[in-house]
Amino acid sequence: QLQDIGIDSLNPDHKSIREVARRFGSEQVAPLAAELDRSARFPYELVHEMARLGFFGLTIPADYDGSGAGSLAYSLVVEEVAAADSGVAINITDQTLTASCILHFADEDLKREWLPPLARGEILGAFGLTESESGSDAGALKTRARLDGDEWIITGSDFSGGVRHLRATLVWDDPPANPMDASDLVNDLDLRVVGP
Fold first, then answer.
1. What is the DSSP letter of 27?
2. What residues have CB less than 8 Å from 163, skipping those under 6 apart?
3. Per-residue pLDDT of the chain (196 residues; tens, 9 = 90+)
4. Nearest 5°: phi and psi at 181?
5. Distance between CA 31 and CA 25 in Å, rounded?
6. Which residues pair with residue 145 across a beta bridge?
7. I need a labelling partner for 1 at 20 to 30 A (CA). Which of 45, 101, 150, 151 fits?
8. End-to-end CA distance of the chain
């Protein structure tokens, strides 16, 4: 059952996080939104500021350099930043989806390697789901993965990427037995330095 969460029901930490995100959105994102849309420029300066504010580590536990503030804090931040520009807010969502795949499906070594830099915004994540033939319909994905010895072979393509360092790609084990058995695999992308 869904419950309306009004401002009065938020605890002081959530109110503070929401206010920081609202101020960031109105003072830093909104003034650039039209220019970012016109130029299709990646907002490096805003991404760096979101990292500094801790927006990328909200759902990542403190053991991996996140704040562990949780899903409500994450939702409040995304809502406030998206009110100014959803194109900027999607960076928080991509980062969180990538981290979530690692947090829930990766082994401890991968968690220790990737979650801290994701939480700190030192690298940017992407969630690979969209394909030219299937859009974002996970049940229609064409990207496949098969185990060849000790390595996974991934065939197919997705539209995620751009200014990203790590991608959690949603794929089907080959052959796909059931559309509800999607697998998450973590694969490295070109590790470029994020900067202007």
1. I
2. 42, 44, 124, 192, 194
3. 555 666 678 999 999 999 999 999 999 999 999 999 999 999 999 999 999 999 999 999 999 999 999 999 999 999 999 999 999 999 999 899 989 988 988 889 889 999 999 999 998 887 766 666 766 666 666 676 677 887 767 677 655 545 555 556 555 455 445 545 544 444 443 322 233 3
4. -105, 35
5. 9
6. 154, 173
7. 101
8. 45
Q: Which of 28, 99, 23 is nearest to 60 (CA)?
A: 99
Evaluate whether 50 touches 56 at the Cβ level (below 8 Å). yes
Element (H, E) at 76: helix 71-84
Cα-atom radius of gyration of the chain, to the nearest Å?
18
Q: Kind of pairing, strands 125-128 and 166-173?
A: parallel
CA atoms within 13 A on the CB side of 54: 18
Among residues 50, 101, 113, the alpha carbon closest in space to that of 77 is found at 50
Task: Classify residue 116 by burial, with Cβ atoms within 10 Å: 0-12, 13-18, 19+.
Answer: middle
Count of residues in the chain: 196
Is the whole model's pTM more than 0.70, yes or no? Answer: yes
Burial class (CB in 10 A: 0-12, 13-18, 19+), 33: middle
The SS3 call for residue 15 is helix
> Tokens 């990646």, residue?
42
